[in-house]
Amino acid sequence: MTRQRGFTLVELIVVMVIIGVIAGVLVLQLRPAMQSYLAIRQRANLSSQADAALRRIIGEVHTAVPNSLRYSLESQQTQCIEFVPTKAGGRYRTAQDYTDANQPKGAALVPGVPVTTFDTLTDVDTSSVVHDDRVVVGNVNRDDVYAGTNVGLIDKVAAGTAGVARSTITLQAPTTFPAGYEGGRFLVVPNAERAVTYTCTMPTSGGTGTIVRVTGYTPNAAPWKTCPTGPAILVAKVSDCSFLYHESEGATQQSGYLQLRLGLTDGDESVKLTMGAHVENVP
Predict the structure, then answer these.
(1) Which of 38, 53, 70, 175 is 20 to 30 Å from the Cα of 109, by its Cα?
(2) Is 119 found in the same domain as 258?
């Protein structure tokens, strides 16, 4: 007869106690490392979101109409910046081509003189610039582009005459652009986004604030007194934000400096980033 061997109840209890002690020691050793890993990943994610949001704003400001950036402080919890975006631009003909004195060629744009058609000296993508887009010339004063005093409504863009112009822009009505501008540059503003506002709303505590991008509205001649809001959230979990814009002093504000600060909070983790950028204001 074969004798069967096994574990006694006491032996099983002893083994379970030993395994429990080892597991407890391992948990105590591994838990801080796991918590640290999760915290670092959470902070990295918040930093990535904040960096992407700030770079998005600065990237759009760099391509905006010069002198169109303006700042509004509604309260300590709400502030916004507004600017006029662009989709294209180039140089226009400032005078006719007099190579042949008997037959001057080209349609010129002369500020102070009504114009319906003018030639460009740089290529304009006829597929991207469409009917009802707007052309802006010489935005020397900040509010001109908002009031529409230097804005023409585009009817069509066609290929220019060989040897004379790269493209020809036709406006929907005769337009007189303000006199005194000699830069020879034009910008195209999309009709769907005649202005863009970034509004930051931050809470008194916690990370429940947001930065939203608002567009598709008709801009006002005066800056915002009450910052607009909308459903297009650029970044959430905002606990702190600050928009500061300083223009250079002097008769011609040829440059400015935009400083953005953004803080995000998620649970017990928080990050705060500051980013600045020079703003070119030469039309």
Answers:
(1) 70
(2) no
Residue 278 and residue 257 in contact, taking contact as beta carbons nearer than 8 Å: yes
To which H or E segment does residue 274 belong? Answer: strand 269-280
State the amino acid at position 132 in one-letter form: D
Q: And the tokens for 128?
A: 């991207």
Supply the pTM of this predicted model: 0.85
Tell me the chain's radius of gyration from C-alpha atoms: 30
Q: pLDDT tens, 208-241?
A: 899 999 999 999 999 999 999 999 999 999 999 9
Q: Are residues 128 and 140 in the same domain?
A: yes
Look at the chain and report how many structural domains it folds into: 2
Query: How far apart are alpha carbons 27 and 14 in whole angstroms?
Result: 20
For residue 126, the enclosing domain spans 88-190
Q: Write the single-letter amino acid at 144.
A: D
The CA distance from 184 to 231, in Å, is 39
Selection from 277, 249, 253 nearest residue 143 by Cα: 253
62 pLDDT above the threshold of 90: yes
